[in-house]
Amino acid sequence: MMDSPTRTFHLPLAADLAWGAGLTALMVAVAGIGFGLPGGYYAVAILLYLAVALPVYCFWPQGQDFGWANRATLVRAAMVVMLVALAPFLEGLGNWLWLYGSLCLLALILDGVDGAIARATRSITDFGARFDMELDALFILGLCVAVLALEKAGAWVLALGLMRYAFLAAGQWLDFMNQPLPESFRRKTVCVWQVVTLMIAILPLTPTAFATWTLALALALLCYSFFTDLRWLYQTGRQP
After folding, report:
1. What is the pTM (predicted TM-score) of this model?
2. Are residues 132 and 34 in the same domain?
């Protein structure tokens, strides 16, 4: 008697994005009701989830299962959307900022889960890496907005979160910037310093002066890192 063929799990992409939207709505609603946030908070959350979901829908190959690693990233995306939407409204939270900081730390810890799942299931893809990277960029931008809302630094702190988007935008006109960059310990170290200083800055006990100077150092290091990568891309792009 022949064994029946093994059926693999498959869920339509629309279904994955639908449960992701439901999870996001639940997290957003709990935070909004708990903190008594205005309607603008919900509007920002909706726009942010659309900004995450639409590129996924457009660029993921139709007909293929989304995969458990990408689903783990989608769970983290729900938390990141809630945290970023909440960022402009932090000024009135008082000691609840400790809870916000703890959730940010949890989101940072979850950053490694999707990669571990991808390695365990041998489903590492360029799409998954890019999905994770863009979610990290959104999270960092949200932390910058949080620091600005708490008046721990001036509007210049937004450059920490916007520099990557400026880099991507410039790549639309400068072809040499679209080459893949090699792995870099320097780049990873600067990114870790950037995230850690932002998360420390939002805590209630962090003095404004300390937050300002550490974030200024993070911005200087980030500018140096981007300049180093740009120089490498330009020199490599000029070679025949």
Report:
1. 0.91
2. yes
- Which of 136, 170, 196 marks a domain boundary? 136
The CA distance from 204 to 191, in Å, is 23
Distance of CA 162 to the CA centre of its chain: 12
pLDDT digits (tens, 9 = 90+) for 137-192: 999 999 999 999 999 999 999 999 999 999 999 988 988 888 888 888 999 899 98
The residue segments making up the domain with residue 208 are 151-240
User: Which token pair is 2?
Assistant: 């022949």
- Judged on CB neighbours under 10 Å (0-12, 13-18, 19+), 198 is buried
Same domain? For 28 and 123 the reply is: yes
> Which DSSP category does 88 fall into?
G
Q: What b/e readout covers 31-59, taking b as 16+ CB neighbours within 10 angstroms?
A: bbeebebeeebeebbbebbeebbeebeee
CA dihedral for 194, 200, 206, 208, sign (positive or negative): positive
Report CA torsion sign: 183, 189, 195, 196.
Answer: positive
